[in-house]
Amino acid sequence: MFKMGMKQAVSSYVFLLQRLHVGHLDAMVASGAQTIEIFAARHHFDYTDRGGVKEIASWFRSNDVRATLHQPIFDANTGEWSRHHQPALNLIDVEKSRRINAMDEVKRALEAAEQIPFESIVLNLGTSNDTWSERTLDLSLTAIEHIKAFAHPLGVKTLVETSPHEVATPDHLLEILRVGHFDTVGVCLDTGHMNLPGRGGVEAAFAILGDRVKEVHLNDNHGEKDEHCWPGEGTIDWKLVTAGIAAITNPPICVLEIAYEPELTSAEVTKLATKAFETLNK
Fold first, then answer.
1. Which InterPro entries does this entry report, sorted A to Z (predicted)?
2. pLDDT tens for each residue of 59-100
3. What is the model's pLDDT at position 88?
4. What's the CA gap between 278 and 22, in Å, rounded?
5. CB 201: neighbour CB atoms within 10 A?
């Protein structure tokens, strides 16, 4: 069972195909979310639009709701959007120019924290093309150090996310944090990523990461690909997830990070998220 005081949250990822507006925020709060994770993608949340950022910031000032940020992973110059676009921004890309581009884009998103009270930012280290090596370790250390230095004065904590590739396994993330002496950097554990082939399962992930977990992305799949289904629609044993969360000393923010479906209305998202929270709290 969830510990008292743990924050239920929803990611705006569920509305990723649409321009984020306050109606979406209202819909997520109506489901019981006490924290909203804003997914930084310019077609969705344009962090370079001062007027748009100001509107979202005004909503947070008027509501007792916390905010977190997911780093941008899509190229701002993609053009017309569709769900078939693959992540293009990689903080540890082998090409220096692409690393710089990704770093600059993450910093642009973080600048929104001057108005929106983001408590943390979730970083993704690498893509499916990256393998674990001394080089990717060094590049990960550099990326975290730069983002951490930029985020800290804005009052934003840095988190690194478990991912379905070699660089960001639980063991490797702990190695990165240990080598870099990143004592204040936490981990975001993505349940769906840990349910994929070769990733060891959610129970092992919680056991390895322990109290380094500060945020949990709650999503399901069928053990074959990263689907971001609602909890209960895939093969994850959610009793193991809730047990893993309950074992963490300081209860983490638990974020429903669900795939975007064009046909889902705000009201339907509220209904589905409410049901998911009720099921997880049983």
1. IolE/XylAMocC-like, Xyl_isomerase-like_sf, Xyl_isomerase-like_TIM-brl
2. 999 999 999 999 999 876 654 445 555 568 999 999 999 999
3. 80
4. 24
5. 16
Residue 5: the pLDDT is: 44
Q: What are 22's two structure tokens?
A: 């306050």
**CA end-to-end span of the chain, whole Å?**
7
CA-CA distance, 19 to 73, in Å (whole number)?
A: 16
> Tokens representing 135?
């080089």
Q: Per-residue confidence at 168, pLDDT binned at 50, 70, 90?
A: very high
**Alpha-carbon dihedral sign for residues 69, 70, 73, 74:** negative
Length of the chain: 282
- Choose among 163, 148, 140: nearest CA to 87: 163
Cβ pair 190, 257 in contact under 8 A: yes
For residue 186, which of 136, 250, 138 has the smallest C-alpha distance? 250
Alpha helix (H) ranges present in 70-201?
Answer: 96-110, 134-151, 170-179
Are 76 and 51 contacting, i.e. CB atoms less than 8 angstroms apart? no
User: Is the pLDDT score of 103 beyond 80?
Assistant: yes
How is residue 246 annotated by DSSP? H
* Cβ atoms of residues 157 and 151 within 8 Å: yes
Domains observed in the chain: 8-281 (3.20.20.150)
Task: Flag whether the pTM goes above 0.85.
Answer: yes
The residues that bridge with 45 in the sheet, in sequence order, are none
- Let me know: does 206 contact 237? Beta carbons within 8 Å: no
Instruction: Estimate the crossing angle of helix 22-30 against helix 50-62, to 10 degrees.
Output: 30
Tokens of 130: 């990256």
CA dist 190 and 188 (Å) reads 6
Measured in degrees and rounded to the nearest 5, phi and psi for residue 166 equal -65, -35
In one letter, which amino acid is 99? R
Distance of CA 239 to the CA centre of its chain: 22
